[in-house]
TrEMBL record, chains A, B:
<dbReference type="InterPro" id="IPR050109">
    <property type="entry name" value="HTH-type_TetR-like_transc_reg"/>
</dbReference>
<feature type="domain" description="HTH tetR-type">
    <location>
        <begin position="4"/>
        <end position="64"/>
    </location>
</feature>
<protein>
    <submittedName>
        <fullName>Transcriptional regulator, TetR family</fullName>
    </submittedName>
</protein>
<feature type="DNA-binding region" description="H-T-H motif">
    <location>
        <begin position="27"/>
        <end position="46"/>
    </location>
</feature>
<dbReference type="InterPro" id="IPR001647">
    <property type="entry name" value="HTH_TetR"/>
</dbReference>
<dbReference type="InterPro" id="IPR009057">
    <property type="entry name" value="Homeodomain-like_sf"/>
</dbReference>
<keyword id="KW-0238">DNA-binding</keyword>
<dbReference type="InterPro" id="IPR036271">
    <property type="entry name" value="Tet_transcr_reg_TetR-rel_C_sf"/>
</dbReference>
<dbReference type="Pfam" id="PF00440">
    <property type="entry name" value="TetR_N"/>
</dbReference>
Length: 175, 175
DNA sequence: TACCGTAGAGAACGACCGTTCTCCGCCGCA
DNA sequence: TGCGGCGGAGAACGGTCGTTCTCTACGGTA
């Protein structure tokens, strides 16, 4: 197996395991065996666990924003489509809230790189939501509040309906 | 020092350290020395770290809800006072988001007791917000979304102004 | 065939952590 | 004074984890 494939497999596995269990609950050996990559390769691709965590978050940022953008674009850039996308996300098996919020809660105090990636993610999200909001005539910060609130409620409340409630609130704010 | 004082000191210290650094980043020995309690006493009061974590969350729940309720009561049960209280909380030094969200992100996958306490907390909060919302004529779920969203944005965005934006959104929903 | 760089498997290392155990000094009591 | 229980300090234990090292097998090249 060459380096690129090993790195890809590791990132796949890291994204799944870190998100499922939290970073502290996944050892390098768990990753190694789940990804089917030798430990030597692991450290060739990512010199430390922290590097792997940061790479995981960057990749997840790309997937998350990409998926949201694509869905909203398919629905005519309708700002309310954001909440439909959230609804689908919340109902996915294994949904465990925002990976960035979770990682900052776990590692933020000791690992500034994680905080940086999370900040970058949230800034990008808010900037994108700001664009959608401007077109629709709603305050960008209000839209962002509803989105973040829905994620938080779905995560620890276990209430996937949070997306629908947030959609209703957004409709009220639009009118 | 008797058992009760030792337990109280431990809880004080646990609340501070666990919240500041995250649970995994605080060892029993850190707690012991910061609280000035012998290790034997620690395990007399709390048979395991998990017990201490649960006790910490329960205590924080009491403090948090009590402080919010008291503030809102002082301000004539005005639903908007919730956001003023949040604003003050966000600006406290050492603010690091919702202790329950952080703990679930860190331990939720391995420790059901933590998930239970967090659920209990969120249910109590939503029930309280529901009462306030009913009186004011706004949907309880919308109010809860704004509150959760503000906490989340202030936590990882580092934007204490989230409380003010949420207040504005609530005012719009009220009118 | 002889050689060399590389890769994989997994042992080994050092640090840390939750928990338990040992030792010693102190106090009340006969 | 002698004794027995209690508390504190911290050593010790067992396990885990991140990281490095060792050993062996293999494939390409002269």
């Amino acid at each position: 197996m060459d380096v690129d494939e090993a790195a890809a497999r590791l990132l796949d596995t890291a994204e799944r395991l870190f998100y499922e269990r939290g970073v502290h609950n996944v050892g390098m050996d768990d990753l190694r065996s789940a990804a089917g990559v030798s430990l030597k390769r692991v450290y060739q691709c990512f010199p430390s666990k922290e590097d792997l965590v940061v790479a995981y978050l960057r990749r997840r940022h790309g997937w998350w924003m990409g998926s949201l953008r694509a869905y909203v674009a398919e629905h005519g850039q309708d700002v309310l489509a954001v909440f439909d996308w959230l609804d689908r996300w919340f109902r996915e098996p294994g949904f465990r809230g925002c990976a960035f919020v979770n990682s900052v809660g776990e590692l933020g105090a000791t690992c500034p790189a994680v905080v940086d990636v999370a900040l970058e993610h949230k800034r990008a999200l808010r900037s994108y939501l700001g664009e959608l909001a401007d077109r629709a005539g709603i305050a960008g910060s209000h839209l962002a509040l509803l989105v973040e609130g829905a994620i938080s409620m779905a995560a620890v409340g276990g209430e996937p309906s949070a997306a629908q409630h947030a959609r209703q609130a957004a409709e009220e704010l639009l009118s």
